[in-house]
Amino acid sequence: VKEFSQYDNTLLFTVANEMTIADTNGYAAFPCVKALTRDIHRYQAQCGATMRRVPLIYSDMDMGPPYRELVGRYLACEVESEDDAVDAYGLNV
Question: Strand, coil or helix: what is 42?
Fold first, then answer.
């Protein structure tokens, strides 16, 4: 994170991509995605002015309604703190 933050052409960091494909238990991996998001946000805050803060995105396949909205809302909401919410939710189409 710190290494790539120095490049102006780094727009977003992908926290995870299409977790539902390999997840045979439905959405069991999403709490881990939120935890990773939280940890990266806190690391960026800890580095302060020594590192540019790059927004975090989760990218998913388009599962259609209602799953698209459910996953997006869950990952973008604050569960334990504002740090565990992704900054953007993207669809691979």
Answer: helix
